[in-house]
Amino acid sequence: MATYKALTVYQPWADLIAYGLKQYETRSWQTQYRGVLFIHAGKQFGEEERAYAKRFAREYPETDAVFSGNVPLGCIVAAVRLIACVPVETLRDTLSPMERAFGNYDDGRYAWQMQVIKRPLVPIAAKGQQGVWEWQYTPESESAR
After folding, report:
1. Where do the domains of the chain lie, and which CATH numbers do they carry?
2. Under-70 pLDDT residues of the chain
3. Which of 46, 63, 95, 139 could form a disulfide with 99, with the two C-beta atoms 3.0–4.6 Å apart?
């Protein structure tokens, strides 16, 4: 059974990462890990998150494809390569308005730079956790969809 590193991200941000529209995930903590990281869409998609999705779709038409269907919850939505983890202060002024809108770039936070490797054709059911966690992929994961 293969084990991989994973990170749970709330929607709509998980899909923005999966579609390559969000290159940085901002966190209050840093990680020394670099390499393949699976993005897990958390189960939460409440009113606040829905309001963000509507705002993003209104302000950034390129996100329309992301929010036009059902938003996957509780599943793996992408494999990315975690390239860097830097203080937001070192790059925030170089980011596009869209990238800035998709993260919290307040002082003292960290920007995790990600490059999408692959998006599964169908999201893979998985139970998330806080922090960087170990995800065990099994063929049964695929059949749980």
Report:
1. 2-143 (2.30.130.30)
2. 139-145
3. 95
